[in-house]
Amino acid sequence: MRTVLLDTQIALWLLADNPRLPKHLRSATESETDICWIFHQVSLSEIQIKYSIGKLPLPDSPEKYLPEAISNAGFEERTIENDGGFFLDKLPNHHSDPFDRLLISHVMINGWEAASVDAQWEKYPIRIFRG
Fold first, then answer.
1. Cα–Cα distance between 69 and 83 in angstroms, integer?
2. Partner residues linked to 76 by β-bridges
3. pLDDT-derived band of residue 62, with 50, 70 and 90 as boundaries?
4. I need a labelling partner for 45 at 20 to 30 A (CA). Which of 9, 13, 21, 101 fits?
5. For the segment 78-93, what is each residue's pLDDT rounded down to a tens digit?
6. If you ran DSSP here, which 8-state letter would residue 95 be given?
7. CATH 3.55.50.30 corresponds to the domain 2-128
8. pTM of the predicted structure, to 2 decimals
């Protein structure tokens, strides 16, 4: 089974059925049964912070919206691992976003693939999900 971590933006686009979601990801999430889609605790934190400061509109507060939306989407949730945090100093400084760096760190230590449209992710030695 393939394991694919969802970048926060991709996760939000999937949860909202946003038309900006790349077609290969929409198709894979609708038809692929051999993929474990990961919604990471890092994304939950990023969403909560952006919602709290008014930079992210949601249908309801994250605590009310996310649990049911994540469950309905069939995403598996993962928590922050100490190894992921400690690995941050080993990452090249291609990306300045601390949330993305922590997600990338977890992708690397776990050997997962990543679903992202952020070009900065391509600079890291990780596999980007292409379908």
1. 28
2. 38
3. very high
4. 21
5. 999 999 999 999 999 8
6. -
7. no
8. 0.94
The residue with tokens 């692929």 is 32
The whole-angstrom separation of Cα 83 and Cα 95 is 19
Query: CA 100 → CA 6, 31, 74, distances in Å?
Result: 11, 27, 22
Mean pLDDT, the chain, rounded, equals: 96
The set of residues, in sequence order, having a beta carbon less than 8 Å from that of 18 and lying 6+ positions away, is 12
Amino acid 89: pLDDT: 93
* Among 92, 90, 97, residue whose Cα is nearest residue 46: 97
Pair of tokens at residue 35 = 């993929």
Q: Taking residues 65-81, what's their average pLDDT?
A: 96
Residues 115 and 121: their CA atoms lie apart, in Å, by: 9
Report how far residue 65's alpha carbon sits from residue 100's, in angstroms, rounded to the nearest whole number: 22
| Residue 36, helix vs strand vs coil | strand
Burial group, residue 116, by CB count within 10 angstroms (0-12, 13-18, 19+): buried
DSSP run (H or E) holding 48: helix 41-52
- Number of residues assigned to the chain: 131
What are the boundaries of each domain within the chain?
Answer: 2-128
